[in-house]
Amino acid sequence: MTELPLIGSAAVADAPLSGARIGVVTFPGTLDDRDAARAVRLAGAEAVSLWHADTELADVDAVVVPGGFSYGDYLRAGAIARFAPLMGKIVDAANSDAKLPVLGICNGFQILTESHLLPGSMVKNDHLKFICRNQVLRVENSNTAWTSDYTQGQEITVPLKNQDGQYIADEKTLDELEAEGRVVFRYVGFNPNGSRRDIAGISNAAGNVVGLMPHPEHAVEAGFGPETAGEFSVDGLGFFTSVLSQIVGGK
Amino acid sequence: MTQETTAKFNIDTVANAAVTPEVELPWAELGLKQNEFEEILKVLGRRPTGAELAMYSVMWSEHCSYKSSKNHLRQFGAKVTEEMKKDMLVGIGENAGVTNLGDGWAVTFKIESHNSPSFVEPYQGAATGIGGIVRDIISMGARPVAVMDPLRFGAIDHPDTARVMHGAVAGIGGYGNSLGLPNIGGEMVFDAVYQGNPLVNALAVGVMRHEDIRLANASGKGNKVVLFGARTGGDGIGGASVLASESFDDTKPSKRPAVQVGDPFAEKVLIECCLELFKHSLVEGIQDLGAAGISCATSELASNGDGGMQVELTSVLLRDHTLTPGEILMSESQERMMAVVTPENIKAFEAVMEKWNVEYSWLGEVTDTGRLIITWDGEVIVDVDPRTVAHDGPVYDRPYARPSWQDELQANHFNGSAADSERPATSGALAAAVTELVSSPNMCDKSWITKQYDRYVGGNTALAFPDDSGVIRVDEETGLGVALSTDANGRYTYLDPFQGAQLALAEAYRNVATTGAVPMAVSDCLNFGSPEDPDVMWQLAEAIRGLSDACMELSVPVTGGNVSLYNQTGTTAIHPSPVVAVLGKLDDVARRTPSGWREDGQAIYLLGTTADELDGSEWANLRGHLGGVPPRVDLKAEHTLGEILINASRDGMIDAAHDLSEGGLAAALAESALRYGVGARVSLGEVAERDGVDLFTLLFSESQARAIVSVPRSEEVRFNDMCTARGFAHARIGVVDSATEALEITGVDSLPLDALREAHEGTLPKYFG
């Protein structure tokens, strides 16, 4: 079978000029891996497929843990995926001196909290339904590996789609996150799932690990993402150009 | 991977059946008629074994054999021109038809019903409806890329409707969202006729390269037969409890659920696993397990192949070790596939299974005996010609006749009826009527439903609800893509089944053309009452005749579909509801036309003419009237309108287009304004005079072959010339004007968009929370 070019096109298959390699992890039940790979390519990096059972990180410069329902999420979102062999490698690399940049989107965010790379957890939306909508977010910290191309306080629109998106943590943790500037994104106008303090995304202390429920990889291409009055948002591309700048700058 | 233990039954072998002709068999309980049982005796030359009886009973059921509709369905294959065959790579009869998209791409799509299970258990019924249709698409070798769900439920304020609504929508979302397939559209109709028989139809579309097309056949003696995916359990065995007589074990559950339970994670893994098998060409033939489970898969694979098949049933991996052979053959457990693999590819096949952690078991092999032989621990329990099971079932010429009440129904026009006596005429009454219409159950905003579906996953969704069609990009380099719309109008079809079916096609065709796509192929889901009622049978016969005629006239072939009968409670049938899906092609999805106005100053044109055609309309429905004849069908006009919309889109002459259907011009204007929150000033006096109708009729009539478009000033001359050259009625009725923040129609009180939106969006949350 010819592989469908759902992961981008032959035209950009050649290694991009930046030389940056960004890994995209696939677990059984991952859904948005092709989308994350496309976003990586559109930003100008090479997307490297990583399989959950791999035991090496294939020399990638950063990792995206994309959305989906890993292992069906029947137990608790991300609870099984965190035990995948590759996750151990990712946790080690993220916590090492090299501070591998890691982005967790939706189910990826849930996996990162289950892996203790990020604090807190996600529970079922307060309205108990799956929700898919175009969501406005405010960038509360533009100094992380994944947000440096945004300006502090910038409002961006990206899709949100989840069942278990309500971010919770104890008050002490929430206060710490606020105090340390680790609340990276907040919902604006409408809190779609009952998340504490309107938190949509957070980072670790070093700022190399970021997780959020909304989907920046679905707002990277005009014509195929959230639109308002016929205008398409490509606001999500900034995540991937941010990390690319850091990778290229560091080389 | 064999079972730890083989359950011990008092097995009814073929040898035993041959010497015990006197054994009473529960054929009636399994749904077989006397004549059908006698036919089985004749085919076999002996009494069937319990296992054979199980197979025949499910495969000869209405659902699997199409025995009541087959004689009529033949028209879809017969009324096909050479032109229509040009792009058809695989036609009716396979799991799904395949259409050539060009550039080496092919697309496959199909719509099916999952009505009864969705009434009994809405969540699982609707969920497994998605699962089943997606497996049909995988079976063709395609990657599924999107789903759609036409839904028809009972009255919005009936207490049971909320149960079905919450369950079915959550089930469709819960299953479809977990597969990573964007849900790009569908329908939602409320009508008391569907109270006890809700319609839950599901459509899936997939894409592939030409060389990747796979068919369901078992060829090549010595090739191995493998069953993979979920284990086989006791779910979905209809009426099979009577086969408990085979068992020695009295402790097993006596009644098993007849509704299947879905596991979307298993299905997602199965999709990726199958695509990897296809990529490495590891299967010779493949078939999904849906209705009738292993009975269907073995008999269809064998009879479509070139010989026979031998299968050892104790090799089937089970969830429940107490299942009898008959139950295993009939089980409709979800997320299972059967494939034929050459001996050389066994290792590679197993490696793919191990990679995805998918369970599999080798059941047997392809033979050249022409027989399907199934053994249990080596003892033969089935020995049949597979064709007699899969294809040579009974076919009925059911009696049908135009219902005695049809003439009276058609004579009862809305115009002049008691319900029509207070036709809105003042500017205030007309504005109130528009607001009432857009907030009515069938015309209101459906985002309460669609926001529970993932429309973005895959990154190729170019249009989705509430635009006229869902549009999906197929090729990221060229922008090649497809548009899909499903439509049906049960009221029209009730008033006139022949024309109603044609109108369903006309609307779906128009919706696809409205987005700029060229209509190419049709899939249909024919939802009707009992074929044993001559009235219903007449509706079915007329609908099929009308639809097949119209397909030929519009040159769009039917490539597959499904018939769902017995949708009735007691003697009261649903409105005949032929749901028609049309697939179209866009050379570049970036050029697709959305339904909403955007740019100030663009001219709004109404294409087509309006007559007083309120019979069966949404307005008449709101006034509790159903009678008369549906809007006139004019397929030539539909074709010309389609050409205009497609050319105008391709050549950049229009920025927005919206078809006129249920709710007429009033609904279309409101929807185009609300889509992006951009208003307009509209004046309809000249058109009303041209068509000889009053303002109310112009706004609410449901005359066909109409659309509204917005045209940039610079394109007006060219656009007018094109319509004139094709002799198609067109009139400039207004201008896009965001400053108004309202829909301003001369002779109608101003409709501020905020209030209109509140009315439009408030209805479903009001009833469903």
From TrEMBL, chain A:
<protein>
    <recommendedName>
        <fullName>Phosphoribosylformylglycinamidine synthase subunit PurQ</fullName>
        <ecNumber>6.3.5.3</ecNumber>
        <ecNumber>3.5.1.2</ecNumber>
    </recommendedName>
</protein>
<keyword id="KW-0378">Hydrolase</keyword>
<keyword id="KW-0315">Glutamine amidotransferase</keyword>
<comment type="pathway">
    <text>Purine metabolism; IMP biosynthesis via de novo pathway; 5-amino-1-(5-phospho-D-ribosyl)imidazole from N(2)-formyl-N(1)-(5-phospho-D-ribosyl)glycinamide: step 1/2.</text>
</comment>
<keyword id="KW-0658">Purine biosynthesis</keyword>
<feature type="active site">
    <location>
        <position position="217"/>
    </location>
</feature>
<dbReference type="Pfam" id="PF13507">
    <property type="entry name" value="GATase_5"/>
</dbReference>
<comment type="subunit">
    <text>Part of the FGAM synthase complex composed of 1 PurL, 1 PurQ and 2 PurS subunits.</text>
</comment>
<keyword id="KW-0067">ATP-binding</keyword>
<keyword id="KW-0547">Nucleotide-binding</keyword>
<comment type="function">
    <text>Part of the phosphoribosylformylglycinamidine synthase complex involved in the purines biosynthetic pathway. Catalyzes the ATP-dependent conversion of formylglycinamide ribonucleotide (FGAR) and glutamine to yield formylglycinamidine ribonucleotide (FGAM) and glutamate. The FGAM synthase complex is composed of three subunits. PurQ produces an ammonia molecule by converting glutamine to glutamate. PurL transfers the ammonia molecule to FGAR to form FGAM in an ATP-dependent manner.</text>
</comment>
<dbReference type="InterPro" id="IPR010075">
    <property type="entry name" value="PRibForGlyAmidine_synth_PurQ"/>
</dbReference>
<dbReference type="InterPro" id="IPR029062">
    <property type="entry name" value="Class_I_gatase-like"/>
</dbReference>
<feature type="active site">
    <location>
        <position position="215"/>
    </location>
</feature>
<keyword id="KW-0436">Ligase</keyword>
<dbReference type="GO" id="GO:0004359">
    <property type="term" value="F:glutaminase activity"/>
</dbReference>
<feature type="active site" description="Nucleophile">
    <location>
        <position position="106"/>
    </location>
</feature>
<keyword id="KW-0963">Cytoplasm</keyword>
<dbReference type="GO" id="GO:0004642">
    <property type="term" value="F:phosphoribosylformylglycinamidine synthase activity"/>
</dbReference>
From TrEMBL, chain B:
<feature type="binding site">
    <location>
        <position position="66"/>
    </location>
    <ligand>
        <name>ATP</name>
    </ligand>
</feature>
<protein>
    <recommendedName>
        <fullName>Phosphoribosylformylglycinamidine synthase subunit PurL</fullName>
        <ecNumber>6.3.5.3</ecNumber>
    </recommendedName>
</protein>
<feature type="binding site">
    <location>
        <position position="110"/>
    </location>
    <ligand>
        <name>ATP</name>
    </ligand>
</feature>
<dbReference type="Pfam" id="PF18072">
    <property type="entry name" value="FGAR-AT_linker"/>
</dbReference>
<feature type="binding site">
    <location>
        <position position="288"/>
    </location>
    <ligand>
        <name>Mg(2+) 2</name>
    </ligand>
</feature>
<feature type="binding site">
    <location>
        <begin position="332"/>
        <end position="334"/>
    </location>
    <ligand>
        <name>substrate</name>
    </ligand>
</feature>
<dbReference type="InterPro" id="IPR010918">
    <property type="entry name" value="PurM-like_C_dom"/>
</dbReference>
<feature type="binding site">
    <location>
        <position position="260"/>
    </location>
    <ligand>
        <name>substrate</name>
    </ligand>
</feature>
<dbReference type="InterPro" id="IPR036921">
    <property type="entry name" value="PurM-like_N_sf"/>
</dbReference>
<dbReference type="Pfam" id="PF00586">
    <property type="entry name" value="AIRS"/>
</dbReference>
<feature type="binding site">
    <location>
        <position position="561"/>
    </location>
    <ligand>
        <name>ATP</name>
    </ligand>
</feature>
<feature type="domain" description="PurM-like C-terminal">
    <location>
        <begin position="221"/>
        <end position="376"/>
    </location>
</feature>
<feature type="binding site">
    <location>
        <position position="564"/>
    </location>
    <ligand>
        <name>substrate</name>
    </ligand>
</feature>
<keyword id="KW-0436">Ligase</keyword>
<comment type="function">
    <text>Part of the phosphoribosylformylglycinamidine synthase complex involved in the purines biosynthetic pathway. Catalyzes the ATP-dependent conversion of formylglycinamide ribonucleotide (FGAR) and glutamine to yield formylglycinamidine ribonucleotide (FGAM) and glutamate. The FGAM synthase complex is composed of three subunits. PurQ produces an ammonia molecule by converting glutamine to glutamate. PurL transfers the ammonia molecule to FGAR to form FGAM in an ATP-dependent manner.</text>
</comment>
<feature type="binding site">
    <location>
        <position position="524"/>
    </location>
    <ligand>
        <name>ATP</name>
    </ligand>
</feature>
<feature type="domain" description="PurM-like C-terminal">
    <location>
        <begin position="600"/>
        <end position="738"/>
    </location>
</feature>
<dbReference type="Pfam" id="PF02769">
    <property type="entry name" value="AIRS_C"/>
</dbReference>
<feature type="binding site">
    <location>
        <position position="135"/>
    </location>
    <ligand>
        <name>substrate</name>
    </ligand>
</feature>
<comment type="pathway">
    <text>Purine metabolism; IMP biosynthesis via de novo pathway; 5-amino-1-(5-phospho-D-ribosyl)imidazole from N(2)-formyl-N(1)-(5-phospho-D-ribosyl)glycinamide: step 1/2.</text>
</comment>
<dbReference type="InterPro" id="IPR036676">
    <property type="entry name" value="PurM-like_C_sf"/>
</dbReference>
<comment type="subunit">
    <text>Monomer. Part of the FGAM synthase complex composed of 1 PurL, 1 PurQ and 2 PurS subunits.</text>
</comment>
